[in-house]
Amino acid sequence: MTASLLNAVPYLLALIALGAALGFFGGLFGIGGGIIAIPMLALVFGMDQALAQGTALVMMVPNLLVGWWRYQQRHPVPPGRLLAIATVATVSTAVSAHYAARLDPLLLRAVFAGFLLLLAASLMRRTAARDPVAAGPLDLRWMPFVGVVGGSSMGLLGVGGGLVSTPLFARLFGQHQTTAQSLALALVTPSALVALASYAGAQRVDWMTGLPLAAGGLLTVSAGVALAHRLPEQRMRRLFALMMALTALWLIRLAIDR
To answer: pTM of the entire structure?
Structure first.
């Protein structure tokens, strides 16, 4: 028993360290870190797609809560707008997560790979344009409808709410990068809670792996948020685009090798 405990300690520390790295980048870019954690849990830890998505949500929820709180202190979202965005996103998440947790794992992985391809194509189109904002910003009253896209992505894939909604808030509504990330966190945080509840109800969560990842993320997410607000906005946009590109290319490569 002592030997087993000693062997478990390095594994536990490795999970905490991994969670710390994901928490920092999640805070920096206003996401939960699941876009990296999910394929790692699937390919390195041998989890099926639904189990990997549910387990990653255990780490993402506290990271998102802390990240949203920190961003809200600097870029507060009006309560009415916050409630509207969160409500639309939560309903969309609940519907999509209910079916995602029960889909065939191979089909779900194919959907995940398709999402990555769309993400890469969207990235190439955005980085080719000089101005990240659309020709004319939309009326802010349309903001809650971004929750349909972001919430559906969170429920179906366990990720993507921030990656999808942040550029939409920036391009369509003319928001600064850090403000767009604050709005995205207001959308993604309740969505992640709903998605986690749905995956847990379907027994698609490994709590023993997810909780150490969450503990590590809590140590560093605030530092990531603080750095995000010290960097120039143009550099933030480039870093965000670079992070999306590298992540998408890496995950596509892993999917092909699989």
So the answer is: 0.71
